[in-house]
Specification:
By secondary structure, this protein is an all-alpha fold. About 80% of the residues lie in helices and about 0% in strands. This is HAUS augmin-like complex, subunit 1.
Amino acid sequence: MCEKIKKVNNWLASVFGDQPVPQFEVNTRVMDILYQLTETSEARCSDTALLIEDLKQKTSEYQTEAIYLQDVLLEGVGLSPTSLSKPAADYVSALVDSTMVLGVRDTSLGSFMPAINSLTNELLEAEKSNRRLERELGALRKTLGSTLVLRAELQEDIDRTAKSQAVEGSKAEERLLTMDFVAAKTTELTIKLKRSEAELTSRKMEKSITHQAIVQLAEVRCSSHIHPVCC
């Protein structure tokens, strides 16, 4: 644990430099996290240092090779960078740019041709992939169009169904209200009838003058008027 704390403190001091290190709670969990960060940071710093050294070495090699080529040009054909004409300098610059783009080490034909062939193959593959993606996109657009049409039709069906349900619901509500009204009136009339009968009974009135008796009497008289006369 002490070794971890010492290593973490050294790392924090290197990170913050002249600034004071912020205070933090020292416990096992915090120290484990900081220790992992320390290990990761040191590993990345080590990788970066190796990469820098490699780039420095390559730069030195390129500089040495450039000096050598300048000497060859100067001694062989008497050319120097300052003696080139403007078109020749432009050609050389274009050749260097092409070399950098193609990622070849030198400007020989044996280096350029494989790099150009490789780029050509990549271009053909990219065009082939683009054609495939265009076909897939066309199919997706067609499917999307069909889906949108189907969605519109389904929405129309839903709207019609909702409207029909609203109309049927209104009719059903009206029927329920009518049934409730009829039931209430029936109950009310039944209660009134019972009260009337009870009142008639309490007054000891004859049944012959009740509503039912009068109706029966009227029916008997009507039936006697329509009987045929016997000969």
